[in-house]
Write a structure and sequence with these properties.
Length: 272
């Protein structure tokens, strides 16, 4: 059965046909559903089955704190032949589906930032990416390759202005296996700040971060537990990993204010 989430208006039920195969870390396949075009990610992709759980949890947490994302659902892939860019088949079972939207990705000195209808999304994105340790948008400076990835920041036109949209959360929470990241509270205790594109600096202040953190703290433990509980069993996330993940998501949330404001203070001192 398809899973349609209450936070989304998009209600697809079936995949009708494949449209395209996309070269990406998870070998996404573009499809047509009974409710428009979508991009789907399935198990046995090069990023691993856990990447689907990261995508679902990251996207749902983003929605829960007020960030805009493409609409999404979990669909049953149960009768069509879907073929990835590397010619491998998408195995049957539940797939993560993201509704196709029209817009533009950003880039260095992007003009879209000056015309945002939702400028509050900028500090919220930095706080959120730090919460979920998102290595795939703008990793911390000490990362192996700290080059910002504007492909995961989307701008959708609204009249003459633009709305900032975030998507693709398959490389969050862990650089490798989730169990390794959770071991000895490694995910929880990562002191680095993520998502801080240099172009965002004019939007970042103590006041804007405190407002963003207020949004994050509105997500209660029961909501986080429900999000983790609704990960399909076919994605092979163990119950012990689910429990440890919930605990560290909550505990890392409670460390965010100290972590982010310390980084902001250090940045201000460098400007003196």
């Amino acid at each position: 059965m398809p899973v349609q989430f209450p936070e989304c208006k998009w209600k697809p039920n079936v995949i009708r046909r494949q449209v395209n195969a996309v070269k990406s870390s998870t070998l996404v396949v573009e499809v047509e559903t009974d409710d428009g075009l979508a991009f789907v990610k399935g198990v046995n992709n090069p990023a691993g089955n856990e990447s689907l759980s990261f995508e679902l949890v990251g996207t749902r947490l983003a929605r829960a704190i007020g960030l805009d994302t493409p609409e999404f659902a979990i669909l049953d892939h149960d009768f069509l032949d879907l073929v990835r860019f590397d010619a491998s088949p998408v195995p049957m079972g539940p797939v993560f589906a993201s509704k196709a939207i029209s817009g533009s990705t950003g880039g260095e000195r992007t003009p879209f930032l000056e015309q945002l209808v939702n400028p509050e999304a900028v500090p919220l994105l930095v706080a959120f990416d730090t919460w979920i340790s998102n290595f795939d948008r703008c990793p911390p400076p000490d990362y192996l390759d700290p080059t910002p990835n504007w492909d995961n920041v989307f701008f959708v036109a609204e009249g003459r202005r633009f709305r900032l949209i975030v998507f693709d959360h398959t490389h969050c929470f862990a650089e490798g296996e989730l169990d390794m990241a959770l071991e000895n509270n490694g995910y929880r205790d990562d002191l680095r700040v993520f998502g801080k594109f240099p172009e965002f600096n004019d939007f970042l202040s103590e006041g804007s971060f405190l407002k963003a953190l207020e949004n994050i703290h509105k997500v209660d433990v029961s909501t986080i537990e429900q999000i983790i509980d609704e990960i399909p069993e076919e994605w092979e996330l163990t119950f012990s990993a689910r429990d440890a993940w919930i605990r560290q998501i909550v505990e890392r949330r409670d460390l965010l204010e100290e972590l982010i404001l310390a980084d902001l203070s250090a940045q201000m001192r460098l400007k003196l």
